[in-house]
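re: ur msg from earlier - yeah i can do the iron/sulfur cluster complex, just paste it... oh wait u already did. ok heres what im feeding in:
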Amino acid sequence: MHPFTYTRVSDTREAIDAGRRSGRFVAGGTTLVDLMRETVERPEYLVDISGLPLHEVSTTARGGLRIGALVTMAEAAAHPKVRTLFPVVSEALELSASAQLRNMATIGGNIMQRTRCAYFRDVTADCNKRQPGSGCSAQQGFNRTHAILGTSDSCVATHPSDVAVAFAALEATVHLLGADGTREVAFADFLLRPGSTPNREQRIRDGELITAVEIPALPTPLASGYLKVRDRQSYEFALASAAVALHVRGGVIREAKVAAGGVGTVPWKLPAVERRLIGERPSEDLWTQAAAQAADGSRPLRHNKFKVELLKRTVERQLRIVGGTK
Ligand code: SF4
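and the outut:
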């Protein structure tokens, strides 16, 4: 591990000042410390923000739910408001990582976590995300777990977060605080597709701090849930996942929020699937027809062609679980 300076801050203004001086924020440390041990990340100045007052889950004046950036994954998953209003968020969190990690890792850190592409973590391999311009070992290498949607010639790595898929589906907003004040970024815009600059992963300015993620008010009753398909049932990343939320009134689907994980370079919103569902009555045929569009535009690689069908089946199954059949 490379030497670094460590400082602990107790208020957000102190944190922003430290961020402006090239400080790198750390809270749970469950991603960053691993990457520092592997020398993938070599920050010179670590700013511990775990003592900042960003630990609350609260309802907003707009009727949404605001989850503080330092709420741990375990706390968010178990929170009565999250469980009641958005089970899709609780389920995505509970299917992530291990119990020990969920007790340490925070919501802000979770959406900032970096890819699990093995070549990214191997400092002897070419990787445009770690070292821009060096190449992408995954394109011709072993790419079974990589993305089929949103890829570029520069990078085909998936985004690893589960809860980010739920946030994408629900059209959440990321709240940021920086030297110029506060701002909000739609979740759909916050995580960046690789394009020709896969080293740029989030729409966040130098020194900016995530303060919260806000889920907007959605019509009730809202049935929702998260399905994760993986090689083993514990402590494993998704090969494909689906976050689904449906509002059905008078026997008709009035609102549909659907996104997929494990298949895209970012959590993959599925607007075509949503459009196919809205205005229809739940039925077996509807789930099949809507899910058939889930992999539109996909570009599978040599070892992950199976993800095209897996994605469609995962979405179909989760639509059936959340929507039931009439
Ligand atoms: Fe690096 Fe992305 Fe290629 Fe993986 S897929 S080796 S992260 S450039």
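cool cool. The pocket of iron/sulfur cluster is lined by residues 115, 117, 119-120, 127-129, 136-138, 155-157, 198 (CB under 6 Å). ping me if u need the other ligands too
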